[in-house]
Structure formats: structure tokens, C-alpha cells
Amino acid sequence: MASLMEMKEIFRNADAVCFDVDSTVIREEGIDELAKFCGVGDAVAEMTRRAMGGTVTFKAALTARLGLIRPSYEQVQKLISDKPPQLTPGIRELVSRLHQRGVQVFLVSGGFQSIVEHVASQLNIPTANIYANRLKFYFNGEYAGFDETQPTAESGGKGKVITHLKEQFHFKKVVMIGDGATDMEACPPADCFIGFGGNIVRKQVKEKAKWYITHFDELLKELEER
């Protein structure tokens, strides 16, 4: 296991940094916002808490939550236009600094492609660098499930994405940053995991992560010091 000093060294020399999206890059949990928008907020928020705490498998929790919400194509688009996701303070500056240093930035999310694309566009992250879940709709726009073949649809999926990135791009050092259990379990294969508690603190992650931050300025400072 790497020491904190070694982890900071890995971060400063990373080829790629992968960010979780919900409650990390953005302030809210996208699926909870979608649930509120569709009128089933409380029931779904409870399911999300259980999923993030690691007590049920991610795919089972996602299937159950989406089965309750059943969002139409129109509702998803209206959510993005009426209540766009709010970026976490400091993320824009951090991603910009990583890009200046030639670091590849990826968004690896258990959330939904359409919402994550909106976030990526604000951070100048190309669509090709998004790994997220895809909602499916019938021709009339009604909910038809989600693409269960996406690696991010299941527990351990974020680790699979990082393994794929290392194989495809020959990255030597990959950092994963996120708030939840699914982010922490992606290391390894990630070379370093940084727990983020700036929007919500997940007890399990705070206790187990060797490097835990509550503001992205802490990471910007690490990059400025060298």
C-alpha cells in the first residue's frame, strides 16, 4: 500500500485522472434529482444511500431505482434544461490545470450519459472520455430500461473501465477521485484513490481512504507546489 507521500507523487505525475461525477464533480446525485423531478424523490434517495454504503449490488440498486422512476426521454431532457447539474466549487479550475499539464481527464460515472455529457461540455472534457450508464427509451420516448452491458452498470465496473484505459492508452499512473464505495473499490487497478467529501461524507470512504479531501483546492495546491 502506498503512503500518503507516495500517493501525492502519483497524483502529481499521473497520466490520467478519473473523476466520479455525482456528489464529486457535481454537487448532487443525478439519479436523486431525476427521481425528485419525476415525483419519487424520497424512496429513491433511501435506495441511493444503501447503494453508496455498499450494502446492495450497484446493478440491483440501479434496476430498482430506475424501475421506480421510469423516466421518459422528455423528462430527462427537461431536467437538464430546467435544473442543470451544479458544478462543485474548484472542479473547473482543477480540470483546466490538469489539461494544461497534458493529463487526460475522464468522467467515470454510475450516472447517466446524457447528464454526464452536459457536465463534460462545461469542463472541456471530450465525449469520448465519458464512461457512464445509458438509459434506453421506446420510440415514443417512454422508459425502456438501461444498457446493462455498460461496465459502469455493475459493482466493480469503474475498475473495469480503468483496466480498459490502461490497456488502450498504456497509461502508467491512473488516479481515481470520488465520494463513494464504487470509486474506492476501483483502486487497484487505479494506482491511487483520493476520497472526496466536499458534497457528502460517506463514512466508510472517509475511514478507509488514505488520502481524503473536502475541497478541490487541496489538489490544485499539490500541482502548484511542483
UniProtKB/TrEMBL annotation:
GO terms for biological process: L-serine biosynthetic process. It comes from Oreotrochilus melanogaster. Its EC number is 3.1.3.3. GO terms for cellular component: cytoplasm. This is Phosphoserine phosphatase. The active site is at residues 20, 22. Pathway: Amino-acid biosynthesis; L-serine biosynthesis; L-serine from 3-phospho-D-glycerate: step 3/3. It catalyses: O-phospho-L-serine + H2O = L-serine + phosphate; O-phospho-D-serine + H2O = D-serine + phosphate. Coiled coil: none annotated. The gene is Psph. Its cofactor is Mg(2+). It is an enzyme of class 3 (hydrolase).
